[in-house]
Design brief:
By secondary structure, the protein is of the alpha/beta class. The chain is 38% helix and 25% strand.
Length: 373
Protein backbone atom coordinates (compact mmCIF):
# COMPACT_ATOMS: atom_id res chain seq x y z
CA UNK A 1 0.00 0.00 0.00
CA UNK A 2 1.38 3.39 -1.03
CA UNK A 3 2.09 5.74 1.88
CA UNK A 4 0.83 9.32 1.90
CA UNK A 5 3.36 12.11 2.32
CA UNK A 6 2.14 12.66 5.88
CA UNK A 7 2.77 8.97 6.65
CA UNK A 8 6.23 9.13 5.05
CA UNK A 9 7.15 12.05 7.35
CA UNK A 10 5.70 10.25 10.38
CA UNK A 11 7.74 7.14 9.52
CA UNK A 12 10.91 9.24 9.24
CA UNK A 13 10.26 10.80 12.67
CA UNK A 14 9.55 7.39 14.26
CA UNK A 15 12.88 6.07 12.95
CA UNK A 16 15.20 9.03 13.64
CA UNK A 17 13.36 11.27 16.08
CA UNK A 18 12.13 14.84 15.55
CA UNK A 19 13.22 16.54 12.31
CA UNK A 20 13.97 20.23 11.79
CA UNK A 21 11.20 22.42 10.37
CA UNK A 22 13.56 22.92 7.42
CA UNK A 23 13.51 19.16 6.70
CA UNK A 24 9.75 19.06 7.15
CA UNK A 25 9.19 21.97 4.71
CA UNK A 26 11.66 20.53 2.17
CA UNK A 27 9.79 17.20 2.23
CA UNK A 28 6.34 18.81 2.02
CA UNK A 29 7.32 20.89 -0.99
CA UNK A 30 9.85 18.76 -2.87
CA UNK A 31 9.54 15.05 -1.98
CA UNK A 32 9.77 13.17 -5.32
CA UNK A 33 6.34 12.80 -6.91
CA UNK A 34 4.39 13.71 -3.76
CA UNK A 35 5.70 17.13 -2.70
CA UNK A 36 3.72 20.23 -3.56
CA UNK A 37 6.09 21.31 -6.36
CA UNK A 38 6.97 17.81 -7.58
CA UNK A 39 3.41 16.56 -8.10
CA UNK A 40 1.55 17.03 -11.37
CA UNK A 41 -1.33 19.15 -10.06
CA UNK A 42 -1.77 22.74 -11.23
CA UNK A 43 -0.23 25.32 -8.88
CA UNK A 44 -0.85 28.64 -10.65
CA UNK A 45 -4.08 30.09 -12.03
CA UNK A 46 -7.78 29.55 -11.56
CA UNK A 47 -7.47 25.79 -11.04
CA UNK A 48 -4.42 26.12 -8.80
CA UNK A 49 -3.69 27.75 -5.45
CA UNK A 50 -2.42 31.26 -6.25
CA UNK A 51 -1.80 33.77 -9.02
CA UNK A 52 1.52 35.33 -10.05
CA UNK A 53 1.96 38.58 -11.99
CA UNK A 54 3.08 36.84 -15.25
CA UNK A 55 0.02 34.58 -15.12
CA UNK A 56 -2.34 37.56 -14.84
CA UNK A 57 -1.00 39.48 -17.83
CA UNK A 58 1.73 39.49 -20.46
CA UNK A 59 2.24 43.20 -19.72
CA UNK A 60 4.41 42.26 -16.71
CA UNK A 61 6.90 40.35 -18.88
CA UNK A 62 6.90 43.03 -21.58
CA UNK A 63 7.82 45.71 -19.04
CA UNK A 64 10.56 43.49 -17.51
CA UNK A 65 11.84 43.07 -21.07
CA UNK A 66 12.35 46.83 -21.31
CA UNK A 67 14.57 46.72 -18.22
CA UNK A 68 16.56 43.83 -19.70
CA UNK A 69 17.19 45.86 -22.88
CA UNK A 70 18.72 48.60 -20.74
CA UNK A 71 20.82 46.02 -18.89
CA UNK A 72 22.13 44.68 -22.20
CA UNK A 73 23.19 48.19 -23.22
CA UNK A 74 24.91 48.75 -19.86
CA UNK A 75 26.88 45.50 -20.18
CA UNK A 76 28.23 46.42 -23.63
CA UNK A 77 25.68 45.01 -26.13
CA UNK A 78 27.50 41.67 -26.41
CA UNK A 79 26.31 38.09 -25.74
CA UNK A 80 23.69 38.22 -22.97
CA UNK A 81 22.28 35.31 -20.97
CA UNK A 82 19.01 35.54 -19.05
CA UNK A 83 18.82 32.94 -16.27
CA UNK A 84 15.37 32.49 -14.75
CA UNK A 85 14.95 30.45 -11.58
CA UNK A 86 11.70 28.51 -11.18
CA UNK A 87 9.82 29.66 -14.28
CA UNK A 88 6.37 28.57 -13.03
CA UNK A 89 4.29 27.79 -16.11
CA UNK A 90 6.76 29.52 -18.46
CA UNK A 91 4.63 32.64 -18.98
CA UNK A 92 7.27 35.17 -17.95
CA UNK A 93 9.84 33.61 -20.29
CA UNK A 94 7.47 33.78 -23.26
CA UNK A 95 6.43 37.38 -22.54
CA UNK A 96 10.01 38.60 -22.06
CA UNK A 97 11.18 37.00 -25.30
CA UNK A 98 8.08 38.30 -27.11
CA UNK A 99 9.16 41.82 -26.12
CA UNK A 100 12.86 41.32 -26.87
CA UNK A 101 12.37 39.87 -30.34
CA UNK A 102 11.43 43.43 -31.39
CA UNK A 103 15.07 44.38 -30.75
CA UNK A 104 16.78 42.35 -33.49
CA UNK A 105 20.35 43.17 -32.44
CA UNK A 106 19.69 42.15 -28.82
CA UNK A 107 17.68 39.06 -29.75
CA UNK A 108 20.56 37.67 -31.85
CA UNK A 109 22.90 37.91 -28.83
CA UNK A 110 20.43 36.36 -26.40
CA UNK A 111 20.23 33.02 -24.58
CA UNK A 112 17.45 32.16 -22.09
CA UNK A 113 18.24 29.52 -19.45
CA UNK A 114 15.64 28.18 -17.03
CA UNK A 115 16.74 26.51 -13.79
CA UNK A 116 14.00 24.17 -12.60
CA UNK A 117 14.53 21.44 -10.02
CA UNK A 118 10.94 20.13 -10.22
CA UNK A 119 10.49 17.69 -13.11
CA UNK A 120 6.70 18.24 -13.00
CA UNK A 121 7.08 22.02 -13.32
CA UNK A 122 9.72 21.64 -16.03
CA UNK A 123 7.29 19.59 -18.14
CA UNK A 124 4.61 22.28 -17.78
CA UNK A 125 7.09 24.96 -18.84
CA UNK A 126 8.33 22.94 -21.79
CA UNK A 127 4.80 22.19 -23.00
CA UNK A 128 3.86 25.87 -22.99
CA UNK A 129 7.12 27.18 -24.46
CA UNK A 130 7.16 24.46 -27.16
CA UNK A 131 4.20 26.24 -28.78
CA UNK A 132 5.86 29.66 -28.77
CA UNK A 133 7.80 31.20 -31.63
CA UNK A 134 10.76 31.92 -29.34
CA UNK A 135 11.35 28.31 -28.18
CA UNK A 136 14.76 28.07 -29.92
CA UNK A 137 16.20 30.54 -27.40
CA UNK A 138 15.29 28.49 -24.31
CA UNK A 139 17.11 25.66 -22.54
CA UNK A 140 16.71 24.01 -19.12
CA UNK A 141 19.20 23.24 -16.35
CA UNK A 142 19.17 21.72 -12.86
CA UNK A 143 21.56 24.31 -11.39
CA UNK A 144 23.46 27.44 -12.34
CA UNK A 145 26.74 25.49 -12.12
CA UNK A 146 25.71 23.67 -15.32
CA UNK A 147 25.70 26.97 -17.25
CA UNK A 148 29.10 28.30 -18.44
CA UNK A 149 30.07 31.61 -16.77
CA UNK A 150 28.10 34.40 -18.41
CA UNK A 151 27.29 38.09 -18.78
CA UNK A 152 23.60 38.81 -18.36
CA UNK A 153 20.82 38.90 -15.79
CA UNK A 154 19.54 36.38 -13.25
CA UNK A 155 15.79 36.67 -12.57
CA UNK A 156 14.01 35.17 -9.56
CA UNK A 157 10.32 36.08 -9.64
CA UNK A 158 8.45 34.80 -6.55
CA UNK A 159 10.97 31.99 -6.05
CA UNK A 160 12.93 32.62 -2.86
CA UNK A 161 9.81 32.62 -0.67
CA UNK A 162 9.52 28.92 -1.57
CA UNK A 163 13.01 28.03 -0.35
CA UNK A 164 12.82 25.82 2.73
CA UNK A 165 13.60 27.73 5.92
CA UNK A 166 14.77 27.07 9.44
CA UNK A 167 12.26 28.22 12.04
CA UNK A 168 13.77 29.74 15.19
CA UNK A 169 12.63 31.19 18.52
CA UNK A 170 14.58 33.40 20.89
CA UNK A 171 14.20 31.74 24.29
CA UNK A 172 15.40 33.07 27.65
CA UNK A 173 18.48 30.83 27.39
CA UNK A 174 19.33 31.75 23.79
CA UNK A 175 18.35 31.04 20.21
CA UNK A 176 16.44 27.79 19.67
CA UNK A 177 15.47 25.97 16.48
CA UNK A 178 12.01 24.49 15.92
CA UNK A 179 11.90 20.73 15.33
CA UNK A 180 8.88 18.65 14.35
CA UNK A 181 7.81 15.50 16.17
CA UNK A 182 4.66 13.37 16.05
CA UNK A 183 2.24 12.54 18.89
CA UNK A 184 -1.28 12.01 17.55
CA UNK A 185 -0.45 14.84 15.19
CA UNK A 186 2.61 16.89 14.32
CA UNK A 187 4.03 18.84 17.26
CA UNK A 188 6.76 21.45 17.52
CA UNK A 189 9.63 21.34 20.00
CA UNK A 190 12.75 23.40 20.54
CA UNK A 191 16.42 22.44 20.35
CA UNK A 192 19.51 24.67 20.64
CA UNK A 193 20.19 26.48 17.37
CA UNK A 194 23.29 25.72 15.32
CA UNK A 195 26.19 28.14 14.97
CA UNK A 196 25.11 28.87 11.37
CA UNK A 197 21.74 30.14 12.60
CA UNK A 198 23.30 32.21 15.39
CA UNK A 199 25.87 33.70 13.01
CA UNK A 200 23.09 34.69 10.61
CA UNK A 201 21.72 37.17 13.14
CA UNK A 202 25.22 38.32 14.15
CA UNK A 203 25.96 39.23 10.52
CA UNK A 204 22.65 41.11 10.31
CA UNK A 205 23.38 42.82 13.66
CA UNK A 206 19.95 41.75 14.91
CA UNK A 207 19.15 40.98 18.56
CA UNK A 208 15.81 39.22 18.68
CA UNK A 209 13.67 39.89 21.77
CA UNK A 210 12.72 36.95 23.98
CA UNK A 211 9.76 35.05 22.57
CA UNK A 212 10.28 36.29 19.00
CA UNK A 213 9.71 33.60 16.34
CA UNK A 214 11.03 34.01 12.80
CA UNK A 215 12.58 32.14 9.87
CA UNK A 216 16.14 31.86 8.54
CA UNK A 217 16.66 31.19 4.83
CA UNK A 218 20.18 29.73 4.66
CA UNK A 219 19.45 28.40 1.16
CA UNK A 220 19.14 32.01 -0.07
CA UNK A 221 22.70 32.68 1.12
CA UNK A 222 24.04 29.69 -0.84
CA UNK A 223 21.91 30.78 -3.80
CA UNK A 224 23.40 34.29 -3.97
CA UNK A 225 26.95 32.89 -3.57
CA UNK A 226 26.45 30.47 -6.47
CA UNK A 227 25.06 33.20 -8.71
CA UNK A 228 28.01 35.49 -8.06
CA UNK A 229 30.43 32.66 -8.84
CA UNK A 230 28.79 32.16 -12.27
CA UNK A 231 28.06 35.79 -13.21
CA UNK A 232 30.99 37.54 -14.92
CA UNK A 233 29.19 40.83 -15.44
CA UNK A 234 25.57 41.86 -15.14
CA UNK A 235 22.62 41.86 -12.81
CA UNK A 236 20.52 39.86 -10.35
CA UNK A 237 16.83 40.80 -10.18
CA UNK A 238 14.94 39.38 -7.18
CA UNK A 239 11.18 39.99 -7.10
CA UNK A 240 9.35 38.57 -4.09
CA UNK A 241 7.30 39.02 -0.95
CA UNK A 242 9.48 40.21 1.91
CA UNK A 243 11.05 43.05 3.88
CA UNK A 244 14.38 44.50 4.94
CA UNK A 245 15.49 43.58 8.47
CA UNK A 246 14.22 46.90 9.84
CA UNK A 247 10.65 45.82 9.01
CA UNK A 248 10.91 42.03 9.25
CA UNK A 249 11.79 41.98 12.94
CA UNK A 250 9.16 44.45 14.15
CA UNK A 251 6.90 43.31 17.04
CA UNK A 252 3.92 42.77 14.72
CA UNK A 253 5.86 39.93 13.06
CA UNK A 254 6.90 38.20 16.27
CA UNK A 255 5.02 35.03 15.23
CA UNK A 256 6.96 34.70 11.98
CA UNK A 257 5.89 34.98 8.35
CA UNK A 258 4.96 31.41 7.36
CA UNK A 259 1.95 31.55 5.02
CA UNK A 260 0.28 28.66 3.17
CA UNK A 261 -1.81 28.81 -0.01
CA UNK A 262 -4.49 26.26 -0.82
CA UNK A 263 -7.14 26.77 -3.54
CA UNK A 264 -6.79 30.55 -3.39
CA UNK A 265 -7.25 30.68 0.37
CA UNK A 266 -4.53 31.69 2.83
CA UNK A 267 -3.79 29.91 6.10
CA UNK A 268 -1.04 29.56 8.70
CA UNK A 269 -1.32 25.77 9.06
CA UNK A 270 1.85 24.22 7.57
CA UNK A 271 1.01 20.79 9.06
CA UNK A 272 -2.30 20.52 7.16
CA UNK A 273 -2.88 19.39 3.54
CA UNK A 274 0.71 18.10 3.34
CA UNK A 275 1.93 18.09 -0.25
CA UNK A 276 -1.27 19.76 -1.42
CA UNK A 277 -0.60 23.34 -0.36
CA UNK A 278 2.19 25.84 -0.87
CA UNK A 279 4.26 26.85 2.16
CA UNK A 280 6.07 30.21 1.97
CA UNK A 281 8.18 32.48 4.17
CA UNK A 282 8.94 36.14 3.49
CA UNK A 283 12.35 37.02 2.08
CA UNK A 284 14.86 39.04 4.11
CA UNK A 285 16.20 41.46 1.48
CA UNK A 286 18.81 42.86 3.88
CA UNK A 287 20.35 39.37 4.10
CA UNK A 288 20.43 39.08 0.30
CA UNK A 289 22.13 42.47 0.15
CA UNK A 290 24.73 41.68 2.84
CA UNK A 291 25.72 38.25 1.51
CA UNK A 292 25.58 39.59 -2.03
CA UNK A 293 28.16 42.26 -1.15
CA UNK A 294 30.33 39.64 0.56
CA UNK A 295 30.42 37.83 -2.79
CA UNK A 296 30.92 40.80 -5.11
CA UNK A 297 27.32 41.75 -5.88
CA UNK A 298 26.64 45.46 -5.36
CA UNK A 299 23.20 46.86 -4.53
CA UNK A 300 21.69 48.86 -7.44
CA UNK A 301 18.46 49.70 -5.63
CA UNK A 302 15.49 48.37 -3.69
CA UNK A 303 11.85 49.27 -4.29
CA UNK A 304 8.40 47.71 -4.55
CA UNK A 305 7.01 46.14 -7.69
CA UNK A 306 4.49 48.94 -8.27
CA UNK A 307 7.18 51.64 -8.34
CA UNK A 308 9.43 49.39 -10.44
CA UNK A 309 6.78 48.83 -13.12
CA UNK A 310 5.61 52.44 -13.13
CA UNK A 311 9.21 53.66 -13.50
CA UNK A 312 9.54 51.42 -16.56
CA UNK A 313 6.42 52.91 -18.16
CA UNK A 314 3.63 50.52 -17.13
CA UNK A 315 0.98 53.25 -17.21
CA UNK A 316 2.07 54.41 -20.69
CA UNK A 317 2.20 50.80 -21.90
CA UNK A 318 -1.40 50.20 -20.79
CA UNK A 319 -2.49 53.56 -22.20
CA UNK A 320 -1.16 52.64 -25.65
CA UNK A 321 -3.08 49.35 -25.57
CA UNK A 322 -6.21 51.22 -24.47
CA UNK A 323 -5.83 53.74 -27.31
CA UNK A 324 -5.67 50.90 -29.84
CA UNK A 325 -8.82 49.34 -28.43
CA UNK A 326 -10.98 52.42 -27.86
CA UNK A 327 -14.15 50.67 -28.99
CA UNK A 328 -13.51 47.36 -27.23
CA UNK A 329 -15.09 47.75 -23.81
CA UNK A 330 -14.01 44.26 -22.64
CA UNK A 331 -10.33 45.00 -23.29
CA UNK A 332 -10.66 48.39 -21.60
CA UNK A 333 -12.14 46.64 -18.54
CA UNK A 334 -9.29 44.08 -18.62
CA UNK A 335 -6.70 46.87 -18.70
CA UNK A 336 -8.22 48.48 -15.61
CA UNK A 337 -8.29 45.11 -13.84
CA UNK A 338 -4.65 44.41 -14.77
CA UNK A 339 -3.54 47.82 -13.53
CA UNK A 340 -5.36 47.43 -10.22
CA UNK A 341 -4.04 43.88 -9.68
CA UNK A 342 -0.44 44.76 -10.47
CA UNK A 343 -0.62 47.80 -8.23
CA UNK A 344 -2.25 46.02 -5.27
CA UNK A 345 0.07 42.98 -5.50
CA UNK A 346 2.99 45.25 -6.33
CA UNK A 347 2.92 47.15 -3.05
CA UNK A 348 3.47 43.87 -1.18
CA UNK A 349 6.10 42.50 -3.59
CA UNK A 350 9.61 43.99 -3.42
CA UNK A 351 12.33 44.28 -6.06
CA UNK A 352 16.07 44.13 -5.36
CA UNK A 353 18.58 44.68 -8.16
CA UNK A 354 22.25 43.79 -7.64
CA UNK A 355 25.13 44.10 -10.11
CA UNK A 356 28.61 42.79 -10.70
CA UNK A 357 31.44 44.19 -12.82
CA UNK A 358 29.87 47.57 -13.65
CA UNK A 359 30.50 51.15 -12.50
CA UNK A 360 27.41 52.43 -10.66
CA UNK A 361 24.89 51.62 -13.42
CA UNK A 362 21.54 53.44 -13.36
CA UNK A 363 18.47 51.27 -13.94
CA UNK A 364 15.27 53.00 -15.02
CA UNK A 365 13.13 50.66 -12.90
CA UNK A 366 14.85 51.96 -9.77
CA UNK A 367 14.07 55.66 -10.06
CA UNK A 368 12.28 55.51 -6.69
CA UNK A 369 14.31 53.46 -4.25
CA UNK A 370 13.78 52.62 -0.59
CA UNK A 371 16.45 52.23 2.11
CA UNK A 372 17.60 48.65 2.68
CA UNK A 373 18.51 48.33 6.36
Amino acid sequence: MKLSLSEIIQHKISKQGPISFFDYMETALYYPGLGYYTSASDKIGKGGDFYTSPYLTNVFGHVIGKQLEEMWQLTGKNDFTIVEYGAGMGSLCIDILDQLKNNTAFYKKLKYCIIEKSEAMRLKEQNLIANSHTKEKVSWYNSIEEIPSFTGCVIANEVLDNFSVHKVVMAENGLMEVFVGFDNGFVEMLKPASDDLKNYFKELKIDLPTGFCTEVNLQAIDWIKNISASLIKGFVLTIDYGFPSSELYQPNRRLGTIVCYNKHTVNDLPYANIGQQDITAHVNFSALNIWGEKNGLINCGFTNQSQFLLSLGLAEHLRRIEEKEKTNLEIRKDILLIHNLLMSMGKKIKVLAQQKGLERPFLSGLRFTQPLT
